[in-house]
Design brief:
The structure holds two protein chains of two kinds.
Chain A: H1 3-11, H2 17-30, E1 37-40, H3 42-54, H4 56-59, E2 68-72, H5 99-106, E3 110-115, H6 149-156, E4 162-166, H7 173-179, E5 182-185, E6 206-210, H8 213-223, H9 241-244, E7 253-257, H10 267-282, E8 286-290, H11 297-313, H12 331-342, H13 345-358, H14 363-387, E9 390-394, H15 410-415, H16 421-426, E10 430-438, E11 441-449, H17 454-467
Parallel strand pairs in A: 2-3, 2-4, 7-8, 7-9
Antiparallel strand pairs in A: 1-3, 4-6, 5-6, 5-10, 9-11, 10-11
Helix pairs in contact in A: 2-3, 8-17, 11-13, 11-14
Chain B: H1 3-13, H2 22-36, H3 71-76, E1 81-82, E2 85-86
Antiparallel strand pairs in B: 1-2
The chains are: A alpha/beta, B mainly alpha.
């Protein structure tokens, strides 16, 4: 069942919050082979569900009233273990609640557990987790994508109808594409980063997963808020995204990339992309060809800026205030051992890259140059949005791939983010949705919109999903 | 990057590694920098560096007291604490 049907049945008292929660928890345990969850909170979730059922009138009209939800284990949850899929935080219990999870609680949702992810959100295959890889519900040897792989798997396997994720370089959209669901990365600043464990603060952005745009709209309604506790939170009038889906999108000018077949995208994905263009054309939209020859340089910029910010953000993990600690009689040794034992290989590598590009001799050659590429990307999109309403492109180069593929070519994993990174560098919103099936595996495509155009992105995807069935196909 | 440079980098990062693993680490870093170095082919003279996509300025809030940062709760998460303090190995001999 998708989110809309579940909420309707709850509101009509055809099913109780307790029954919904029990069903979600049963499935989470039944599909434990997916390794989608790091923690489940059975007792607390059922207790909250019971409370909601006993106070039905207070919850029935809330956006997420009575709905079980899974949160990526990157959001601090007060009194509940939050690991970021790292040995460093294996036993960390935050003394405070993130704004995202707090907003979701207030909107009436029931947190059944925290989902697995790449360690500190660094990865595109969910293989870097200290708690082991997540399995894609579409095939037991396949990766679900990353870093929000557990959240995507939870929705794809129908464990929960909604889940939260974060997208720094594509970590919502890429797993959404690989798992056959819908995922939205909002404009930087729309959703508070308070209590979200930092990886790359100038790009990290939380967003929703659901089977369709409707579910994403409802969850974004709950997640988005101005937050004085986040200095980069955007102060804007509140938009009701669910209501925005009722409006007409009109006839849009959609940007498509010239020479898209030169980017290394698989034939199957290009075919699905062309099919979607035909549907969009039938719906009255027109296409404008754009020259985006600089697209590939986004990866270079990202893999300088993200490690640089990561090396700075992760400096706080020193074994003194919280997290893993290696016992030593010497403070220098304590830092060194704690960080060597607590961080996995990929995280250690990114810290080294970040420290290198920020060091005195290399700052201009790497960090400053990467920031210039970032400006170039933003300028390019600013130029695009003078002539088009949206940009349409595939989400990934390939469909879900076999585990361990990336170990033979470390840069191959980084290239997974080729089509998603530009939106992160520019801070733009983008939505990925299922738009095809090949080799019995899902395919995803994405719309990138101008700043704070989430209502338009959700609406055009919703209109597309009203006439197509790709989002209804399950593993 | 050579072994001495890596040793310095490891120290700056407070990350440990066995010397026998240095060649493997250097190789991996070189592979990544090989990809990153493609930036050098771009003409970026006309672009100013961009720190933040929305070019937001920091906001400040009132410096008011609340009970969020409870000392007891925060110390409880420390791997080693003693009454009101975090405990670390002796620093000054």
């Amino acid at each position: 069942m998708n989110f809309k049907d579940i909420r309707e049945r709850f509101r009509n008292k055809e099913i109780s919050a307790k029954e919904l929660t029990k069903d979600s928890l049963d499935k989470a345990h039944k599909y434990s082979n997916l390794n989608a969850f790091i923690s489940t909170f059975d007792e607390d979730a059922l207790k909250k569900a019971e409370y909601i059922d006993n106070n039905f009138n207070d919850y029935k009209d809330l956006a997420l009233g009575g709905i079980p939800i899974a949160h990526k284990d990157i959001f601090c949850t007060k009194g509940k273990r939050t690991t970021c899929a790292s040995k460093m935080l294996e036993n960390f219990t935050p003394p405070y609640e993130s704004t995202v999870t707090s907003n979701c609680h207030q909107a009436g949702s029931i947190m059944i557990g925290k989902t697995n992810m790449d360690e500190f959100a660094m990865g595109s295959s969910n293989e870097t987790s200290f708690f082991g890889p997540v399995i894609n519900p579409w095939g037991e040897s396949l990766v679900p994508g990353g870093s929000s792989g557990g959240s995507a798997a939870s929705v794809a396997a129908d464990i929960t109808s909604l889940a939260t994720g974060t997208d720094t370089g594509g970590s919502i959209r890429q797993p959404a594409a690989l798992c056959g669901i819908t995922g939205l990365k909002p404009t930087y600043g729309l959703v508070s980063r308070w209590g979200m464990i930092a990886f790359c603060s100038s790009m990290d952005q939380a967003g929703p997963f659901a089977r369709d745009a409707f579910g994403c709209a409802a969850l974004l309604d709950a997640m988005a808020s101005y937050d004085a506790k986040d200095s980069t939170s955007a102060q804007r009038d509140k938009v009701k995204y669910e209501d925005a889906l009722r409006g007409d999108v009109g006839n849009l000018k959609i940007g498509i990339l010239r020479d898209i077949d030169q980017l290394g995208i698989s034939e199957e994905i290009l075919k699905a992309y062309e099919n979607s263009k035909t549907v969009l054309e039938k719906q009255g939209h027109s296409f404008v060809e754009l020259d985006f020859s600089e697209l590939s340089s986004g990866i270079c910029s990202y893999y300088v800026i993200a490690p640089a910010e990561c090396s700075s953000n992760l400096a706080r993990f020193d074994g003194v205030k919280y997290g893993h600690r290696s016992d030593s009689s010497n403070i220098s040794e304590l830092y060194l051992q704690t960080r060597s034992e607590g961080f996995g290989e990929e995280v250690r590598k990114r810290i080294l890259i970040g420290t290198y590009v920020l060091s005195a001799g290399f700052y201009d050659a790497y960090y400053r140059k990467a920031q210039k590429v970032r400006r170039m990307m933003k300028s390019k999109f600013d130029e695009f949005f003078k002539s088009v309403d949206l940009v349409f492109l595939p989400t990934t180069l390939d469909q879900a791939f076999e585990m361990n593929r990336t170990s033979s070519d470390p840069n191959r994993m980084y290239k997974e983010d080729l089509l998603t990174i530009p939106a992160n560098l520019a801070g733009l919103p983008a939505i990925s949705f299922p738009n095809g099936l090949a080799n019995e595996l899902p395919i995803g495509a994405q719309f990138v919109g101008n700043y704070f155009s989430e209502d338009l992105l959700l609406n055009i995807t919703h209109k597309l999903q009203e006439v197509t069935d790709w989002h209804k196909i399950k593993p | 990057m050579d072994k001495i440079e890596l040793k310095n980098l490891l120290f700056l990062s407070r990350i440990g590694a066995k010397e026998e693993d240095y060649p493997k680490i250097i190789e991996k870093l070189k592979t990544t920098f090989g990809m990153i170095d493609q930036m050098n082919e771009l003409d970026l003279d006309q672009f100013e560096p961009l720190n933040n996509p929305l070019e937001l300025t920091n906001v400040s809030r009132a410096d008011s007291e609340d009970d969020r940062n409870s000392k007891k709760e925060f110390l409880a998460e420390s791997p080693k604490s003693d009454d009101d303090f975090f405990v670390v190995p002796k620093i000054v001999e």
